[in-house]
Amino acid sequence: xxxxxxxxxxxxxxxxxxxxxxxxxxxxxxxxxxxxxxxxxxxxxxxxxxxxxxxxxxxxxxxxxxxxxxxxxxxxxxxxxxxxxxxxxxxxxxxxxxxxxxxxxxxxxxxxxxxxxxxxxxxxxxxxxxxx
Length: 132
Ligand SMILES: [Zn+2]
Description:
This protein is mainly alpha-helical. It is built from four helices and no strands. Helix 1 runs antiparallel to helix 2. The longest helix has 40 residues. The structure holds zinc ion (ZN).
């Protein structure tokens, strides 16, 4: 064997594969958001009038409020996730997918397989998290 395979300056990712993963994830998130939205509307409709509030009802009411609060925070999280997925899809188009936003290094493929919308490598991510 003569000269071995040329060393590539840049890692070549299977962008099609990750694009498919991201699109599937996006679909799932949108569906989830719809479900949560419907659930929140349902809870809203179920909250009784203050006028006929008894002790038991107010316990029900606070349970509903809590449920609504949870639903809303889940909705916020989903919103953020969808945004992250969208950003990743843009990066795929720009051919900058898999590159860490902070250090410009490669994000490990295993990490991208687990979190296709990751924009930071593990090192930078933990750095950001330690700062808060
Ligand atoms: Zn990094």
